[in-house]
Structures are given as structure tokens and as C-alpha cells.
Known about the structure:
Elements: E1 11-16, H1 23-35, E2 39-44, H2 49-57, E3 60-64, H3 68-71, H4 74-86, E4 91-95, H5 102-108, E5 113-115, H6 123-127, E6 134-137, E7 144-146, E8 177-180, E9 182-183, H7 194-198, E10 203-204, H8 207-219, E11 225-228, H9 243-257, E12 262-263, E13 266-267, H10 274-283, E14 287-293, H11 297-302, H12 309-321, E15 325-332, H13 339-352, E16 356-361, H14 369-375, H15 399-414, H16 423-449, H17 451-454
Parallel strand pairs: 1-2, 1-3, 3-4, 4-5, 8-11, 11-12, 13-14, 14-15, 15-16
Antiparallel strand pairs: 5-6, 6-7, 9-10
The structure holds S-adenosylmethionine and iron/sulfur cluster.
Amino acid sequence: MKNNNKNNNKIKITIYSPNYYTYGAMVIGGALQKSNTKYNIKLIKNIDDNNLKLLLKSDFVLLSLYSTSQIIDENLKNIVNFIKRKSKNTKIFVGGPVSAYPEIILGELPVDGVIIGEGELITPNIIEGSKEGLAYRDINNNEIIINTPKLKKLETLHADLLIPNNIANQSIRGANVYIETHRGCIGNCTFCQVPKFFGKEIRSKPLDEVLNEVKQFKKRGVKRIAISGGTGSLYNFKKEVNKSMFIELLEEVSNIIGAKNLSVPDMRVDYVDEDTLNAIKKYTIGWVFFGLESGSDNILKSMKKGVSVKKNLNSIELAKQCSVKVGGSFIVGAPNEKEIDHLLTKDFIVDAELDDIFVSMAEPIPKTELCNLVLDTDIKNNPSFKPHNGQYKKLNLTEGEARCFDLMLHSENWKSNPNMITKQLYSILLNESKKDGKNIRNITELIFKYDKYLI
Ligand SMILES: C[S@@+](CC[C@H](N)C(=O)[O-])C[C@H]1O[C@@H](n2cnc3c(N)ncnc32)[C@H](O)[C@@H]1O
Ligand code: SF4
């Protein structure tokens, strides 16, 4: 490999995570830094003239991607094509949760390879020329080679993070950074990427290492921290929830950063109780976001959510009794969702009186069960494509978009703190539904294009 930087012999590596410095990008940066002091590593999240020059001067560009829509994003494609045209010696690798479907990435982006799975152990070796854990195109016959990593995943998480100096300037849903306390989820939800990518076993980071990271972030000016990881209360889960460790985690982190600056949003309704909710109230901003998904038991069952509508309502009630604010996430437009399911979800929202509500259209993330269901469904019957002929007919929406729009309007009316539907709010929600609808159609077309790798 020819080194672009002749002056100081350092290998230049630029990690580009579009829009945000993701935790994953910081983990990879830290792992590389630790593995070799001869690496000159930069982390970027946007493209301006300086960063474009930096990319062209790099020996390696690592694209850290977490969502399917990033693979088909025209801007990203243009950047990759530009680097390939202008700097023949720069190698570009893609990593992150999208690496679960390397054939799609290699089909859509002219990159040199895809780093498969959790990258912290294998990326340093790949930079040194190893092909273990790399998917790439064989230049002789254009075939895709997938070298599944032989290295075991980390059982106990450790991370030496590369934290950018301007981390405190970013806001991801109100937090400067989402930190990782554990990986994996015991849930089986058919639409979800978390157990598919990280697995169903929970692997946690020792508390002192979490606290050390929080201190490092604080030193860099970070004010607000959120704990990510699918389901917060699964921290140190081993056969059962380790309530005391979860509570200790919240207490200790909030001692450093302050309760009003800490949130632990993602929570499953069946993995909270009075003690955990009281701790959330005491040591965080006092909010939970449950994945409620639907007001129809049939849909919850088909999503393998593992809980019923009644359980959802009971946990919302319990959280309110503990003075915890409750947000709920809903999914509309799954191929098997019927009009009656949608009506049941609207009734549920009235009964639940949630403090905040997120509605998204079902995204067929490649390799999930939902993806298979979408591939098995005739496009004509797929709500993301089927024209809507009901009350919003004039708006030219698909059935999925109409349900998304309808549920968002309904949510504004029935939140604990309702909003009046002004013209402006109406058009914001309409545009959001259309944008979501377009994104889902693009992803659906993508999975049909690569269906031979998915079924
Ligand atoms: C709020 S968290 C889930 C919290 C918690 N782990 C649970 O399951 O209750 C993530 C939410 O993002 C939404 N989501 C995840 N994957 C999705 C997909 N493929 N399509 C649409 N929405 C999705 C779901 O509403 C999901 O509940
Ligand atoms: S939706 Fe929540 S519970 Fe279900 S698999 Fe994903 S993270 Fe786990």
C-alpha cells in the first residue's frame, strides 16, 4: 500500500460518520489509535472544503454507517465516487450496523470493502492488510468474497474512545452523545436491527469504565448524555434483569453529569418496575420511551413483541404513578396491518395519554424478519406503495403515508399536552409522512433489487 503522506510516514485514516459523531465511530477511532501510534486518525461528520481535502489525502477512509438509507444517499455516493476518481490510492471501507448486508453495500457504493460486524477487533488488522472480517469484490472475477471474522466478539465491552474536540457542539435528539453501556437485546422484534447486529446475549461494560468515559466526555465539554443500547435496563442482564446494577449505573453517571443532563430513553415495558422507574425519576431527566408499536394485539403478536396491549397500558400507568414522563414509539404500515389495527392504535393512543409520541413507517431493514415479510408481499398489496383512497385521497398519499399522517395528527390531539393543529403543523406532519414514505419505498426497492442475498 502506497502511503499518501510522505512527510511523516504516518498512515492517515479518516473516519467519516455522516451528520453525527456516532459512538461506533469513536470506538473504531480509539481502537485504531491504541493499536498503532503511527496512525494519524481524524473523525469527521460533515463535508466542507477542508474535510474533502482531508479525505483525498487519506490513506484510508472509513465510512461509519448505521442506516440503510445512508447506503443509497446520493450525496454519500457522490463523495465516494469523487474520492475514487481523484485519489486512486485511498482505500475506502464501510463499517457499522449496515455491514450485516455487505452485498448491498458493494453493489451500491464503489468502496474497497465492508468491515463485517463489530469492528473494534478487526479494523486495525484490516488496515494492516488482513482480509479477515472483510467483504470485498475479487478484482479477477468481480465476485463478492465474504470473509466472516473468526475473532470472537468482545464478551465484556471495553472501549478506548477517540473523542473529537467539538463533540459538545452536536445534538442528537437533545443529547451531545449517546453512550454504550451494553450490547445486544433479548427481544425478538421482527423489525429490529439491534439483536440482529449485536446478538441476543447481553454484553455489558464494567461500571468503572462507563464512568471513566462519562468523565472523558465531560472534560470535552459534553453537557447532556443519553444511554443507548436498545433497552437501557438490560445493563448487566444475566438470565434476569440486574436491577441493582442498572440503578447504580444511573446513580453514578448522574453524580458526574447531573440528573437533568442524563437520559435513558429506550426501555421495554416488561423490563421496568417501580424501583427502576423511581431511579429513572431520581437520576435522569425522568422520561422513558417505550416501543409500544401498535394498539392491536394481532400486530404485536406478528411483530413478536412479546407483550400485549394490556401490558403496554399497565406499564404506562406504572410509570405515571412514579411521576416518570412516558413517550411511545409506534410503527405503521407493516404489510399485514389492517384498517382495524390502525383504528385500534388510535383508540390506544386516546387511552394511554402519552406525553410524547413517535410514529414511523415500518422499515424493512435487510436481514430482519420484516424484510422477508415485505419481500413475500406483492408490491400491489404493500401499504408503502398502495395508493390511499380514503379520507386523505386528495393529498395523493400511499396507504402507509396516510396512516402515518393520520396517526401523527391524532397523536397531537391526544397527547397529555395536546397541540392545536395549525396550518403550519399540518404541513410539517404531512411532509414528514411523505418523506418517510419515500424513504421506505427506496429501501423496499433496494431489498427487491438484492433479494437473492436476503431470502
Ligand atoms: C423506542 S426504541 C425501543 C425501546 C425498547 N427496546 C422496546 O422495544 O420497547 C426503538 C423503536 O424504534 C422503532 N423502530 C425500530 N426499528 C424500526 C423499523 N425497522 N421500522 C420502523 N420503526 C422501527 C420502534 O418503534 C422501536 O420501538
Ligand atoms: S425493539 Fe426493543 S425489545 Fe425489540 S428487539 Fe429492538 S431493542 Fe429489543
